[in-house]
């Protein structure tokens, strides 16, 4: 009965399919007629505007009032995380890039950097340190550039080990750079192998950003 009320035959669809946001594939609407952008986790849905089933999402009407649409949620009501348009299940550990590793938990996620963010100060045996991207390696590395011959060498090979005890020093972690979503916190510390001051950075998230309201296209 619902299908007969909302689905018209023959189908009349736009000539050009809609351009979908990242992570939202083109799917057939609830009538199996026109291609639309699949609704993502937390977005509104109804009979016509279907959720992304490839991510395990269904239209959840449990919290909707009578006559209104639902919200895209996991079929088993399991909480998850959406990062860069991809949905991860609760408890899943994932890497959005080779530089960070994240853990999805209770609808949010926390991440730790996999690359060390240190500051290399000039020393007599490395007067011109420079951090560069190395082909084939994820994390940038410090190299030493000689002033006259411009020779590059691995900074770690020439860093002398400390012979005297290190007096630990460091600042508190700064506030998160973002009020919602993924941000960064930084501090300066010498708690490392060479007792060298370095700027350390870690990912933080105070709370998830609210989902943007999606406008329903007009149904002809």
Automatic annotation (TrEMBL):
Residues 79-145 form the VWFC domain. GO terms for biological process: cell adhesion; positive regulation of cell differentiation; signal transduction. One of its GO terms (cellular component) is extracellular space. It holds the Pfam family VWC. SUPFAM superfamilies: FnI-like domain, Growth factor receptor domain, TSP-1 type 1 repeat. GO terms for molecular function: heparin binding; integrin binding. Gene3D superfamilies: Complement Module, domain 1, Thrombospondin type-1 (TSP1) repeat. Its main location: secreted. Coiled coil: none annotated. PANTHER family: CCN FAMILY MEMBER 5 (PTHR11348:SF22), CONNECTIVE TISSUE GROWTH FACTOR-RELATED (PTHR11348). Belongs to the CCN family. This is CCN family member 5. The gene is Wisp2.
């Amino acid at each position: 009965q619902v299908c007969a009320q909302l689905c018209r035959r023959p189908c009349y669809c736009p000539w050009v399919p809609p351009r979908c946001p990242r992570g939202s594939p083109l799917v057939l609407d609830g009538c199996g007629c026109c291609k639309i952008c699949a609704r993502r986790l937390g977005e509104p849905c109804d009979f016509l505007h279907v959720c992304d089933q490839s991510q395990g999402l269904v239209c959840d009407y449990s919290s909707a009032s009578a006559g209104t649409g639902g919200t895209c949620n996991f079929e088993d009501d399991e909480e998850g995380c959406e990062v860069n348009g991809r949905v991860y299940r609760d408890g899943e550990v994932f890497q959005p890039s080779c530089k960070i590793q994240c853990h999805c938990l209770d609808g949010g996620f926390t991440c730790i950097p996999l690359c060390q963010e240190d500051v290399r100060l000039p020393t007599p045996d490395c007067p011109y340190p420079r951090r560069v991207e190395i082909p084939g390696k994820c994390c940038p590395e410090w190299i030493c550039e000689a002033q006259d011959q411009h020779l590059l060498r691995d900074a770690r090979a020439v860093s002398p080990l400390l012979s005297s005890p290190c007096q630990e020093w460091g600042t508190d972690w700064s506030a998160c750079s973002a009020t919602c979503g993924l941000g960064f916190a930084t501090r300066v510390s010498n708690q490392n192998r060479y007792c060298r001051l370095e700027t350390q950075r870690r990912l933080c998230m105070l709370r998830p950003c609210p989902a943007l309201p999606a406008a329903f296209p007009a149904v002809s």
